[in-house]
Amino acid sequence: MAGAPDRALVGIGMAAVAAVVLWAWLGQESFDSVSSTSLAWVLDNFGWLFVVAADAFLVLCLVLAFSRFGQIRLGADDSEPEFGNLAWIAMMFSAGMGIGLMFYGVGEPLTHYLAPPPASGVRPESSAAAATALEYSFFHWTLTPWAIYGVAGLALAYSYNFV
After folding, report:
1. 136 in a structural domain
2. What mean pLDDT value characterizes the chain?
3. What's the whole-number mean pLDDT along residues 87-100?
4. Are the C-beta atoms of 133 and 112 separated by less than 8 Å?
5. Which segments of the protein form a coiled coil according to its record (predicted)?
6. 11-54 confidence digits (pLDDT tens)
7. Is residue 156 part of a domain?
8. Which residues contact 86 (CB under 8 A, 6 or more apart)?
9. Residue 21: C-alpha distances to residues 26, 29, 140, 142 (Å)
């Protein structure tokens, strides 16, 4: 590690988090109004960015995996993995998707079928709504979330081992 954390920076961060938590606790109606309006504005203006960013993470993971960077060892030169690839895949799938797929595997497509996202422009309970519901579910539950987790995990692992 690179020494002690900057106390001023940590203090400012803690104060900001405490202020938001207190506002949410003491001024629930105003906090709800501001946060709902802010979220709606972000989604209306930058919703496309979520899709582009998730796809960019997926491309980045593929580039990292199949380029020379995929050969970087994240551990000591003489270390051996505790688990094999199949065991790691099983653990990641179970932890990351197990309960989510059990609960949302049916619920999310039905929700999008009955009330399609406004940006889709399709009529609820139509064949177009069914297709849109599956598109959104596939986007949320296939490779894109794993790419996001992977980029975050690789950044942490690389920083831990080499910075």
Report:
1. yes
2. 91
3. 82
4. yes
5. none
6. 999 999 999 999 999 999 999 999 999 999 998 899 889 989 99
7. yes
8. none
9. 9, 13, 29, 34
For 18-52, b/e burial (b = at least 16 CB within 10 A) is eeeeeeeeeeeeebeeeeeeeeeeeeeeeeeeeee
Domain count, the chain: 1
pLDDT at res. 89: 85
Q: Tokens standing for 19?
A: 């202020």
Residue 134 has pLDDT above 90, yes or no: yes
Any domain includes 151: yes
